[in-house]
Amino acid sequence: MSGPGVGRRSGGFDAGSGVLSATARIGSDPVCVRPVAAPVLAPRPCPAHVPLAPAQERMWHAARLGRSADWNVARAMRLRGASVDVAALRAALKFLVARHVPLRTRFPATELGPAQCVVDPDDVVLDVAECVVSEAELVPAVAALAGQPFDLARELPVRARLFVLGPDDVVLALVVHHISVDGRSMGPLIRDLVTAYLACRAGTVPHWPPLPVSYIDYTLWKHEQLGEFTDEWSRATHQLRYWANALAGRPALLDLPAREVPAAPIDPVAGALLPISFDAATHAGLLRMAQEGRASLFMVLQAAFALTVGAFARSSDVTVATAVSGRDHRLLDDLIGNFSDDVLMRVRLDRAADVGELLDQVRRVALAAYAHPDTPNPRLKRCLLQDAALPLFQATLILQRAGAPRAPVEPAPAQGLSITEVPTGVVRAKHDLEFGLTDHYDALGAPTGVDGSFIYPIARFDEATAQQFVARFRAVVGLLADGYRGPLTVLLATAGRGRALSTARRATRVLV
Asked: Following CA atoms 312, 246, 253, 367 in sequence, which dihedral angle do they give, to the nearest 10 degrees?
């Protein structure tokens, strides 16, 4: 679980001077320590052994267990026009990989543990092939490409295919392993690729501003911040101890209403997607609740999500999660790499009598999670009394703020050429219950709605069960937005497996 970086320490860190204070408190006794300068993110000499960044460890261990393809990230760009240049596309990919270190990094096991081994740009051999396909064959072909595992110890974590639909119609499909990219990497990746293609098409080289640091610099900086797990006073040990205590005694597995085992085996991470949206009035109501509870919109949605998960699993002790960006320094904005991971939030529904107490609990749990973001999942599993084969969490909700509307990339100098990002049709469900939501605002900052999708594994749930879960989450969110602040029993009934929603609404009218 690595995430948004350095949480501010209470009473120990001076944000103005950037150094640890000369006294720290352990128990009730002050202990004198020497001031220690905060590590600086800057270019560094590359040592012989570069460990994985904390955010990479879960993907590396999954690949070692044969689940490498579960973490493949697929994107596709369609180029149409009289001047599509396949040779320029190949050259652009070479420039892209040379610019961004994670795209030319292998991840072997060594005597010192898993390592990042960067390949020199001149030695890079890209896996790029050209295939002629029809429109009907395109989506299955991209899905097949995305389903091929990477051998991270020997292969570069990127491959591409040029799917030719016609002389003036080409789709470039890219598959990159999640160990080398995260969601926010897609912006700089697509931007730099388009820049490189236009330069190569014009017979020149891309002129990018130099990157201030590399992903290797970031990794070494992060490890310097965290220290060693063998040091009982290190930040790494402190965070691990926090999570081991926070998650002790929780249910190892939620009893979700899964489907019967199908006769034919199904890929366990093959997923399906259901859309979900909330209108501007609901969005505004959720923001009012957040303001009342000194919380964020995300915390309100996470409270509704925990209620729905708990009722669905018939459990008052649920662990939900969210992804955090991990880009806690401005120098990381334009880098491609994996900085993000998950943080967990254990919610005790039985310790909240009403909506206000639940939101207060979720706020406190979320802030504590954000302050302890850097413990890798495999290491944490070894500290908990649960079967290591079981997941740390089964339910996750991610909320992100919408940016400016993105238009298709239409470079002015390229007459007759259009470049658009196209859906790949690939849905991977690594968790049982997953919402990916986006909140939208108008030019004046007024809320205009929340939308997104619910992703679920088809091996675990049929569509009817998934629809039922989405409907119940929507009902709980609607009640909160309408102003319900009473006992949780009404909301639990709304989100339960077999209770009619109309019953809960009638009860709400009595209670509010």
From this structure: 40
Output the CA angle 325-101-227, nearest 5 degrees. 55
CA distance 200 to 107: 30
Look-up of token digits 């150094």: 19
Q: What is the pLDDT of residues 195-211, one digit of tens each?
A: 999 999 999 999 999 99
The Cα 220–Cα 277 span in angstroms is 41
CA distance 421 to 76: 6
DSSP assignment string, 301-330: HHHHHHHHHHHHHT-SEEEEEEEE----SG
Q: Report, in this order, helix, strand and coil percent for the chain, each rounded to 5.
A: 35, 25, 40
- For residues 468 and 270, what is the distance between their CA atoms, to the nearest angstrom? 20
Q: What gap in Å lies between CA 241 and CA 260, rounded to an integer?
A: 39
Long-range CB contacts for residues 104-109, cutoff 8 Å, separation at least 24: 104/156, 105/156, 105/157, 105/180, 105/215, 106/152, 106/153, 106/154, 106/155, 106/156, 107/52, 107/56, 107/60, 107/63, 107/152, 107/153, 107/157, 107/179, 108/152, 108/153, 108/154, 109/64, 109/153
- Nearest-Å Rg of the Cα atoms of the chain is 24
pLDDT tens-digit readout, 278-324 = 999 999 999 999 999 999 999 999 999 999 999 999 999 999 999 99
Q: What residues form DSSP beta bridges with 271? A: 457
Judge whether 433 and 309 are in contact, CB under 8 Å: yes
Look-up of token digits 């961004």: 100
Q: How many Cβ atoms from other residues are within 10 Å of residue 173's Cβ?
A: 24
Q: Bridge-partner residues for 169, per DSSP? A: 80, 166
DSSP string, 138-175: HHHHHHHHHTSPP-TTTS-SEEEEEEEEETTEEEEEEE
